[in-house]
């Protein structure tokens, strides 16, 4: 089964967050992930509104978690810390 990496983000420092995005993309791709939604239009129906929503699909929950824990992604994440407020969850798909 595959997995979805779902992030809801409020960017507080666009320059630093841009560096995160620049480094995170290759780290995600290296673990078989690909973006299917990245900051596009959205409708907030419930819960906390965050202006940036990102969804990536991975071949498995394990691959998505390995990506998050990888040195490459953690190096990218260093730029997002203090530059954003984030919620991130990995959800296994049923297909």
What is the strand and helix layout of this fold?
Elements: E1 3-11, H1 14-30, E2 34-38, E3 52-58, H2 61-69, H3 71-80, E4 84-92
Antiparallel strand pairs: 1-3, 1-4, 2-3
Helix pairs in contact: 1-3
Structural description of this entry:
It comes from Kangsaoukella pontilimi. This is DUF1330 domain-containing protein. It holds the Pfam family DUF1330. This protein has a single domain (about 5-90), classed as Alpha-Beta Plaits (2-Layer Sandwich), CATH 3.30.70. Helices cover about 40% and strands about 30% of the residues. The chain contains three helices and four strands. It has a four-stranded antiparallel β-sheet with strand order 2-3-1-4. The protein is globular and about 35 Å long.
- CATH topology label: Alpha-Beta Plaits
Show unreliable segments. Answer: none
What is the global morphology? Answer: globular
Strand runs, count: 4
CA-to-CA gap between the ends?
6 Å
Characteristic key phrases:
95 residues, alpha+beta, Alpha-Beta Plaits, 4-stranded antiparallel sheet
What is the compact description of this entry?
The protein has helices at residues 14-30, 61-69, 71-80, and strands at residues 3-11, 34-38, 52-58, 84-92. With 95 residues, the protein is of the alpha+beta class. It has one domain (3-92): Alpha-Beta Plaits (2-Layer Sandwich).
């Amino acid at each position: 089964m595959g997995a979805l990496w779902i992030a809801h983000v409020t960017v507080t420092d666009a320059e630093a967050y841009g560096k995160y995005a620049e480094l995170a993309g290759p780290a995600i791709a290296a673990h078989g992930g690909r973006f299917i939604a990245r900051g596009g239009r959205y409708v907030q129906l419930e819960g906390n509104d965050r202006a940036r929503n990102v969804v990536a699909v991975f071949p498995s929950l394990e691959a998505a978690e390995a990506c998050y824990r990888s040195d490459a992604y953690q190096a990218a994440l260093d730029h997002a810390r203090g530059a954003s407020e984030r919620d991130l969850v990995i959800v296994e798909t049923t297909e």
